[in-house]
Automatic annotation (TrEMBL):
Keyword line: Acyltransferase, Transferase
Organism of origin: Opuntia streptacantha
Domain of life (superkingdom): Eukaryota
Pfam families assigned to the protein according to its UniProt record, in alphabetical order: Transferase
Transferase among keywords: yes
GO molecular function list: acyltransferase activity, transferring groups other than amino-acyl groups
Protein name: Uncharacterized protein
Amino acid sequence: CSSDLTLMAYSASSKLSLKVKEKCHISPTPPLPLGDSHSLPLTFLDIPWLLFPPSQPLFFFQLPSTSSPSFFASTVVPKIKASLSSALEYFAPFAARLAASEDSNKIKFVLDETASFSVPLTTAECDDGQFEYLCGDYCQKNANDLHQLVPNLQSLRTSCGLDHLSPLLAIQITYFPKGHGISIGVAHHRVVSDERTFNNFMHSWASFCKHGKLPPGLQPTFDRALILDPNGLEPILLNQFWESEPGSIIPTPATMGLGLVRSTFVMGPTHIAKAKQWILAQCEKKNRTYPVLLSPYVVTCAFVWACLVKAQLESPAQTRIHKGPTYFGFIAGGITRLGYRVPVNYFGNCVGFGRAIAKREELLSEDGILVAADAIGQTIKKLDRDVLGEAGNWISDWEPIVGSDLHVNIVGSPKVDLYEVDFGWGKPKKIEENSIDVMRGISLTESREMKGGIEIGMALPKSTMDAFSCRFTQGLLDFSL
């Protein structure tokens, strides 16, 4: 199969020439406590994320063609530092540390107003003329290249318990003089926030940088009484966390990105509409029951799941054939599913876990997309009825998914508008989610160019990526027939 999606050759030896210019720490100004105290407890919706690897979104921005290293050092960096400090005043938990109570029955964010109450920030310069390459969509990029542009964070779960010294957020700004662009690499522990809260933080930071003020409606509320726990899930999930082995969910960071290439694929609204029509037509033709839900999210996920399973079978990188159930893990928003009001500016995690199940041999069949769509749709409908119904099993259910080559997990959400984040240089030229390497996940974001479209970020062995590209391209053609 010949795919026009693989436009640029992959180089296994590719490595960016990066020079670190400065390392510093940014604190909120003025440092404010969380509500009426200097601590903020975790809720049961936060606890499962203690075991997950950090999120590592990477934003690329185009600067004016007149930009220079002196402009970056004297104008861009000071504005980013000052605006980050201002944003942290309102989003203080990003600058906090974690601490457990003496009896280990509670974990909380702690602000002690010491040197540890800060966010590490690195500035760097990349002399390689690879800015356009790194921002590309339909090309294969060495996954290791992008990892040089984001900071690393330590695991929060250690052999001694909980790491109470590690930061929860870190930033790296890299300037590309030959491409007149910058990247802002962010690493943050998912226990701090879901995609909604992180999106609010990024928009607030950018607004302080561009306008010098907080956007209307984005000042967060930290009221933990908003999250109800009538089923007593907090002690159940907390006990599972303490009983877990360090690294039980988090794969080994040393292996992330090795031998992997990255590509971005786009499902535009027209593609999604045609795929939905194709699915309905196939159900009619085969006398199958229609899937219970065919939203743009379900259609996109079903198509990607079926393509990936078949690509893995065709790839030499697949060393064994897996039979039995295959899982598709994803995040379901809780704001609209909990049955009571939670404001959109609530700070913290307010999401549930979904796990669709399908037999691998059925996904490999000619009805694979139909099988995937039905499994994902049924799972979402189940979450609509009771998003917390299986919450007591969230940690154990996700252990076999994260970091697995056999199962799929979705990172990110196409419902947040990160492509509208504007620090004063226009919206991002490209957004990548680096953590999909270590999580063996798939990232979904809104499309930058097509309203209603979805960007799909993949990190796979090259042979698997080639096979996936062929499957994806051919699938779009089939939908149009």
